Amino acid sequence: MGEDSTTAEHEVKSSASTTIFSTFGKKDTKEIEIVKFDSVDYSHPSGVAALVNVSLSITRGEFVAVLGTNGAGKSTLVRHINGLLKPTHGTVSVFGESTRERTSAFLSRGVGMVFQNANNQLFAQTVRQELEFALKNFGFDRQTIQDRVEWALNTFSLKEYVDKPPMELSGGEKKRLCIALVLAWDPEILILDEPTVGQDYEQKALLGQIIMKLLGEGKTVMVVTHDVEFIWPLQPRVILMSQGRIIADGSSQEILGNPAVLSKGDVLPPQLVELSRLLGWKNYYPKDVFEAESRIIEQRYNIRVPDRKET
Amino acid sequence: MTSDEPLIRVKDLSFKYLGTTRRVLDSVNIEIFPKEIVLVAGHSGSGKSTLLRALNGLIPHHHAGDYEGSVVIDGLTVANTAMSELARKVGYIFQNPDNQIFMFTVERDIAFGLENLRVPPPEIRKSVDTIMDSLGIRHLALRPPHELSDGQKQRVAIAGVIAMRPKILILDEPTSLLDPFTASSMIGLVSDLRERFGMTILIVEHRLDLILRIVTRMIILDRGRVVFNDAPRAILSEVDVGRYGVTEPAIVRLAKLMGLGDNNIPIDPGSMAHRLELASS
Amino acid sequence: MQWIASGFLFSRGQTVVHRLDPRVRLALAIALFVVSLASHSIVELIGIIALILALVSVAKILRRFSRSMVFTAAITLIAFVIYYFVSSPLNALTFALRLLAVIASTSVFFLTTTPDELEHMMRWMKIPSDFVMIFVIAVRFVPVILLDSIQIMDAQRSRGLELDKGNFIQRIRNTIPVLVPLIAASLNRSLDLAEAMDSRAYGAYPRPTSLYIMKLSLSDWLVFSLIVIGTAFGLYIALFVHLL
């Protein structure tokens, strides 16, 4: 694999972490395949098949949503990316390397995962220590750790809790802390497992902003979710799973706009899509209420609008 | 349909948990009538769960604190009535399905409440069987809870609670852990219960899109106070509920944007399409 | 992920042994236990062990039984060796056999009795409801706690914690990020459970009724009589008859 990355663009965090991934820093190279599943099967030790013949490719900077009912295999799929699970057959490659010989602690340096249940990992005596935990594990130097913790505290409005025990935070604050502690080590790929569960409106809005910001920075973001209403305006690439298989893989317009496909995955379409279909719109489904309003007005006044392609 | 005596009367209720300084509930006044389906919404931390707990007696009997005002449920004053008495009137479904199923098998857990009330065993058997049939979980009777899916666990929890034939059913964020499909069927089940057993339902939920179609009244709490208490359409047409932590369905947002926010505001795509068709003709 | 917990304690057999009233099985276990303890005779002890093995075969739990006895066998071997040098070979053998018999008799009981039956017996023995619930909930949540611990380990691995490497001291240190959330989750769980139990009228009466009723059938009484006779016989031999 490659040695030190030569393009200076990507900030070098510490000597412990630069030599790991060969594609780090190569921002000028387009279309890098950052995650690849090659005919992957996964069965639980009990024999139950959880992933069946899964093949997919994710390029750097993509925004991907994984949809499907509980038990469809969404969480199982993403746990292969940070190495928590290893395929029974087939290969999963991350940053060009197979995950098979790597521990998930190692892979997590580049693949950060925010879990659904915030409580199941907080253990430190202060929020500061909680934020430092991963940074220490990954071998960052003292100064960098301090900088990154400061950044996290400020960005996620946690400064007032810095010396408090994480257990004392409210549910929403704990969830914020969990996102903060992952972003603190600045992974290339961020995976969010059911991030909107139990979140109120403002918390979800903040989440959406964080995702867009990360995408703007060139990060790759994956969201495992049921919440079609949440992701629809963000228009990610959609991977629909059912019973361990990928049954559809395409744009939000193609997949979430196709009730036949969705019903095979037992997924309900977003309200704006349902409305669009009822009003007879076909080629483009408005991603938010403003686009919907424009379209309705155009339709009402019979303005001829050229068939919109997805943006 | 609804009689004129409120089933639940909350009068000037204020509550502060022991050892804290902030009032979690502040002079709350609410009346709830039989067979209503009431949605309680608000920010995380607005007092929703506390209010629900004040209705089944967990407050003040299980959680100590400064309690002012009164809550009267079907003639019983909560503060003066033992929880075991109140359990016959009010059933509470908690958010985490696992943490409310205690026994080794499904049917034994459903029987739990009846056993506590010293119902004779043959009657328990009959009730348990009937309820399992109503909820479609008869085939799970002897299964241990850890083998069930979340949706199934939720049903078992509901079964265990309605076995005691309460008049009021409280559900604390019942669908948050479920996927929309399962959540939809759960909501259908709840609506069914109200029809079949004449129950009054209170639900706390953040997401409105699935639940709005069955809700008859909406109460929004903000920092322990009731800020809105009215029919859902009336509130949605007037108020930007997002400010109170509530996620408005996209259709509602669209309707308001297009000036269709009146008392007949559409809440789902069907009614919206209908409304638009009317407007254009 | 439920494979881990399936089959855990919840195997309900259908053999003759399983279908006995649990109280009769308890009597059987106590009988074997008491006679083994009283006996000094190698022949008798071998007889008892043979009887236990016969029961194990009838109950079709041979594999689980052997697995549960592995640890005991090791201890027994050590005890045998110690006794051999401290005392006589004969005493060593007697002691070893006695140890095996005593533990095997309790093992048979627990392997053929479901937690449900245990709970019913505890109530029948008039053990206070609170203690019975402690037992029930502890057992009911073992699979849940196992699953929780796996989730926690996964979460901490994802923060760079190498759980599968390191020397002894490192490994001990690494248990803290796993144990603390686990204990916190368990504590929170117990708070939730307390609320839920109160909300379902727990404690309304000190002696609740039960969905299941334990009734002794004819075969139960027959077996019980056999046990009583067998115990009397066994004790007679143990105490009054000199047998090797």
Commentary on this structure:
The complex is a heterotrimer of chains A (311), B (281) and C (244). By secondary structure, chain A is of the alpha/beta class. Chain A has twelve helices and ten strands. Chain A has four domains: 1-28, no CATH class; 31-110 and 187-202 and 215-253, Rossmann fold (3-Layer(aba) Sandwich), CATH 3.40.50.300; 119-186, no CATH class; 270-311, no CATH class. Helix content of chain A is 34%, strand content 20%. In chain A, the strands form two sheets. Chain A has a six-stranded mixed beta sheet, with helices on both faces. In chain A, strands 2-1-4-5 form a four-stranded antiparallel beta sheet, with helices on one face. In chain A, helix 4 crosses helix 5 (142-155) and helix 4 packs parallel to helix 6. Chain A is globular. Mean pLDDT of chain A is 86; it is low at 1-29. Chain B is α/β, with parallel strands linked by helices. Chain B has two domains: 8-240, P-loop containing nucleotide triphosphate hydrolases (Rossmann fold, 3-Layer(aba) Sandwich), CATH 3.40.50.300; 249-281, no CATH class. Chain B is 36% helix and 22% strand. The longest helix of chain C has 25 residues, at 62-86. The termini of chain C are far apart. With 244 residues, chain C is mainly alpha-helical. Chain C is built from eleven helices and no strands. In chain C, helix 2 (22-38) runs parallel beside helix 11, helix 6 packs antiparallel against helix 7 and helix 8 runs antiparallel to helix 10. The chains are: A alpha/beta (311), B alpha/beta (281), C mainly alpha (244). Chains in contact: A-B, A-C, B-C. The interface between A and B is large, with 36 and 39 residues.
